[in-house]
Amino acid sequence: MFLYRWSIVAVTLSDQARQSRPLLLGLLMALLLLAFGELLISLERARELQAARTHLQIEASAMRARLESELAASFSVGLSAASLVSSKPDFSTRDYERLARSLAGWYPGLRNIAIAPDNVVRYVYPRQGNEKALGANLEQVPAQREAALAVRREWKPLVSGPVELVQGGVGIVHRVPILVPAADDAPRYWGLVSVVIDPAPLFRRIGLSADADVVYALRGRDGRGESGAVFFGNAAQFRDRHAIRMDVLLPGGQWQLAAGWRTPPDALTPRYLLWHALALLLALGGGTLVTIAARSQLRLQVLASQDSLTGLANRNQFLFQARAMLALAARQKYPFTVLNLDLEGFKGINDDFGHEIGDAMLVHVAQQARECLRASDLIARFGGDEFLVLLPDTEPGPVLEALVARLRGAIAQPLNIKGHTLSVGISVGAASYPGDGFSMDDLMRVADFNMYANKRSRRKVEG
User: Fold this and answer.
1) 229 Cβ partners below 8 Å, 6+ apart?
2) Chain-wide mean pLDDT for the chain?
3) Contact 147, 158 (CB under 8 A)
4) Which of 348, 327, 347, 344 is nearest to 336 (CA)?
5) Which helix (DSSP H) or strand (DSSP E) does residue 438 occupy?
6) DSSP for 149-207?
7) Cα(427)–Cα(409) distance, rounded to whole angstroms?
8) By percentage, how much of the chain surpasses pLDDT 90?
């Protein structure tokens, strides 16, 4: 008995699951379509990110090449001047001006060229605008002392800056040591050549701008490379995971260049938002179509197992569940009863008032009968005005008789329709397992026979 009741619960749960299956299938399809759409968007974004990085790499490489070329051209002036002074350290002021004018002609972007014997500025070209630099002991100027001492100590070119200049303004300074032979022909430190470049015009000339699509930053003040301070652009550029970083090689030091897109390549642009919206719409559309198709299929299955007029089980569904109950009852050794209900007076209603009212009466009978039965009972419209009821865990006796009496009373309740008050009665035939048979054919035959016997006896009583 417990197993049977559990089977009823299982059937109920199965029906609920079947009803929710279309929605679950639609939801699953929507999730799959959304996942597929997002995968495609992700692959496209990855492709565009890679293309953007490659393009950025090319742009940054070109910028580094221009920067190194410009700086090398500018700083070559200092090397040439140091070489010439080294060969003739006793030059005159006129000799220096002629030399400086010639060198400045090679690179008109220079701010000034200075010669500092023993690190004291004695000659500067052009003189105008640089008067304050004359006579300056570079080893006593705080902003330039360390670089001047390093040139004296190491005897190699050194880049400084950008630094504050003695004569005002900001400059990038390239200092080249001047070595002359001593009495024993061994080289000695004579002084240095200082070439000053104004960074702003140089950066504009090579396109290093803060307004371009590619944003640049430079660090490595005083040629210290990665460890030096940032002197152009935003320091955050060096922390950007999408930025490209490259070393810029200088005569006597190095800088580091960082390049990144002004608009991050992984930003949610309107186009990507549109793609995500389309993916969501396609997922919802696909899920909706699957839900509709699944519900239509379920509806077809329901129509195949239900009577279209009353919503009760039809003949096929009744026979299917009856055979399942018979097999379960045979294993568990419990009884059940089959009732055959035949309407009395229905043919007259159909003939006198038409099929529309006749159909309404059948629906009324189905509703009244269902209200008398348990959730575990099954009622089916077998055809026309014939109904069969399957009553599990029920055997002949007072309980069955009470149920039949309730069915008679409920079905006999009048139906008010279109100004008419109509009612029908029922003839009932019962057959119980196992007393009346061991197969559904036997039980249905006995119930049919008993129904006709009940019909005849009722006619005699009424007659």
Assistant:
1) 219, 220, 221
2) 85
3) yes
4) 327
5) none
6) HHHHHH-S-EEEEEEE-TTSSEEEEEEEEEEEE-TTS-EEEEEEEEEEE-HHHHHHHTT
7) 12
8) 25
- For residues 365 and 361, what is the distance between their CA atoms, to the nearest angstrom? 6
Q: List residues bridging with 177 in a β-sheet.
A: 192
Report CA Rg, the chain: 51
Q: Mean pLDDT over residues 37-51, rounded?
A: 86
Question: Where do the domains of the chain lie, and which CATH numbers do they carry?
Answer: 53-277 (3.30.450.350), 315-462 (3.30.70.270)
Beta strands 187-197 and 386-392, pairing class: unpaired
| 124 and 114 Cβ atoms separated by less than 8 Å | yes
What does the pLDDT average to over 210-234?
88
Give exposure, 108-142, as e/b (b: 16+ Cβ within 10 Å).
eebbbbbbbeebbbebbbeeeebeebeebebbebe
d(CA 294, CA 286): 12
pLDDT in tens, 326-342: 888 888 888 999 999 99
Instruction: Check residues 287 and 294 and name the one with the higher pLDDT.
Output: 287
354 backbone dihedrals φ, ψ, rounded to 5°: 100, 165
Reading the block at residue 23, the tokens are 């929605």
- If you search the block for the tokens 């009324």, which residue do you land on? 364
Stretch 131-160: mean pLDDT: 88
**Structure-token match 């043919």, residue found:** 347
Rounded Cα distance, 239 and 227, in Å: 14
Instruction: State the Cα–Cα distance between residues 291 and 168, nearest whole angstrom.
Output: 78
